[in-house]
Amino acid sequence: MSSLKWLKELEIAIIEELFEQIDALASNIPNFENEDEANRAKALLDEALDLVKNEKNLTSKQIKIIEKNLAFLDSDREHQLSLEV
Q: Which of 1, 6, 8, 47 has the most beta carbons within 10 angstroms of its beta carbon?
């Protein structure tokens, strides 16, 4: 894949938040034709890193909410079972 095509695909993957595509592209970085392309790649990879970190934080918050809800449901179920006895 040419470096220009790689840059364009990475840019699209970032805009569309395609994490698997970002991972695939980041795992297969081409040789760049010039310093401008290399600088653009660095900027895009920095942006991709920020995007992935934000998604990780959001996912972590969602996991905590789900865990709280599960704990509540477990305790509520135990409470209901103790009332039935």
A: 6
51 in Cβ contact with 14 (< 8 Å): yes
- In the numeric block, which tokens belong to residue 47? 């942006």
- State CA 8 to chain mean position distance: 19
Q: What does each C-alpha distance from 83 to 69, 71, 80 come to in angstroms?
A: 21, 18, 5
- Which of 7, 84, 13 has the alpha carbon at shortest distance from 48? 13
- Separation of alpha carbons 28 and 21, rounded Å: 11
Q: Please write the tens of the pLDDT for every residue from 17-40.
A: 999 999 999 999 999 999 999 999
Secondary structure of residue 55 in the 3-state scheme:
helix
**Do residues 37 and 4 make contact, with C-beta atoms less than 8 angstroms apart?**
yes
Comparing CA positions, the residue from 53, 48, 43, 54 lying closest to residue 21 is 48
Supply the pTM of this predicted model. Answer: 0.76
Domain that holds residue 67: 3-84
